[in-house]
Amino acid sequence: MKRVLIIDDDIALTQVLKINLDETGNYESRIVNVSSNAMAAAREFKPDIILLDVVMPGLDGGDISAALKQDPVLSKVPVLIITALVSNDETGENAVISSGDQVMIAKPIRLEVLTKAIEDRMAGVL
Amino acid sequence: MIPSTILTDTTTELQKVLQILCVEDNDGDFLLLREAFKDSDLDSRPILHRATSLAEAVAKLLADDAKVNFDIVLLDLNLPDSSGLETFSRIREAAPTTPVSILSGISDRNMAVSLVQSGAQDYLPKDSLSADLVIRSILFAMERQRNRTEMEEMNNRLQKASEELKTAQMQLIQAEKLDSLGRLAAGVAHEVKNPLATIQMGLDYFQRKEDLIGETGLLIISNMQEAVTRAERIINGMLDYSRDQNLLLKESSINAIIRHALALMQHEITRTKVLVIEELQEPIPSIRADSGKLVQVVINLVMNAIQSMSANGSSDRSVTVRTFWDRLPNMERDEGLRQWSQLRVRDPVVVVEILDQGGGVSEDKLSRLFDPFYTTKPTGEGTGLGLSVARNIVNLHHGYLELKNVENPRGLRVRMVLKAWGDPEGWLPSPESRNLTQPVTLKPNKL
Ligand SMILES: Nc1ncnc2c1ncn2[C@@H]1O[C@H](COP(=O)(O)OP(=O)(O)OP(=O)(O)O)[C@@H](O)[C@H]1O
Ligand SMILES: [Mg+2]
User: Fold this and answer.
1) Which of B183, B184, B196, B201 to mutate against chain A (most A CBs within 10 Å)?
2) What ipTM describes this predicted complex?
3) A57 touches chain B (CB under 8 A)
């Protein structure tokens, strides 16, 4: 069982996401809705992968990402950035975008696309 | 207006020998006038030319081989070939800038007075001509004409300034509209896509429970899936529209953009004798940009830099325009200008730095510089829109502008940070290959 940390301020989305992920039987996920709690939660939960929202009140995805990189342990955890701000040619099949060492997934996310991205990211092929 | 300057001005005017065109058909009146000048105590007697008809007068005024530039026209309104107002307007037409003084008899006194109100500089009553009166009238007439010309020039300048302001304002409004449309689209996209994502996740959940839901349920789910996909497409279309439609985005070279902008400013650079030092890093990643709009930004920024040094009269007079690329965590990020949805940590960025030696800006004013209409330049010279237009354009490119005071010598450093477009050559060092806490070592090409 891989541990997935979901950092996103949208409560409804994170709830359904967690149910879906956990029901696959492959993941154990944990939700953080308030981004200022993210670092503490990450240190305690020791995730295998982090799903990170971009636009959040207070600390945003950029701040969290920077903080993760400063942390000796967490900097090694792969991150999938989930964002609402992509365009038509970046959805559906192409919902997973990697640019440099960033990997982004477009909202809304199909579960199958997400799980594949999670696996690829953890395997280091994304 | 200061009277003493009028006097000195007119004195020099008089010293160069006045050329007077007297349009008068009556010999007696002309002789009287000539006598009047003989009595004058001017150092050099004015030269009196004569025309006896409107046609002759117009011919004299228009003759392009004429060596004579008349300083004033003394005009009798009633000529053999013309009379009254007609006479005056024909002369005006022929010589719009030459002062005209009306020679009036008792009978046309009223007409003369009203002509003075509508463009003639003065009138002289023929029945009481004296040297003093004529000379004084001529001086006044010339002075009035000068004032009028000055006023017209001022007016033209004012009009030009107001047109420039209007253009700048249009640019600002346009850039601002595009920028706010982009923001609005991004805001709506974010607000709508999150609930869509929840619905999508819900659908994925129920799709797995076929046996529980039954055929009708599955039909409903597939319709809902269709609806989510459609809504997503609409939102994306809106994002695409606000993003690219209004910018001519092409893969561009920042160095080419800077060279183009500097070439356009060559005249200004030469005129102000400011040394512009180019330190453009080569090779440098390309950017995706509307190069015409970015040229406008660079011109605004370099112009400000040049103006800052003429304003404080500093003796060091160089502007450095520098380009380099970096990755975002190394950049000092202005908290107020976060564009994180577009620029991400470790993204390769292309940076343009414009560094002047103009003394910088006091820290409390720094944040005001981007305000539309904020200017410290004299009226007619600055609209105060340069930086706000620049910032809007850079925002449209999902980059940011950053201002910072620097020392030794004191000046302002303006940075434009834009996302690099790809790494086609593969020559950007990987982030792991260098120490990210160290700034990039630059090897600028001095040009
Ligand atoms: N490089 C600089 N050094 C010092 N002050 C600057 C510099 N650039 C801008 N400023 C200050 O910021 C003000 C606003 O600049 P901005 O470009 O928006 O308008 P402007 O230059 O006054 O007018 P315009 O650009 O329309 O000619 C300037 O009037 C000046 O006081
Ligand atoms: Mg300016």
Assistant:
1) B201
2) 0.86
3) no
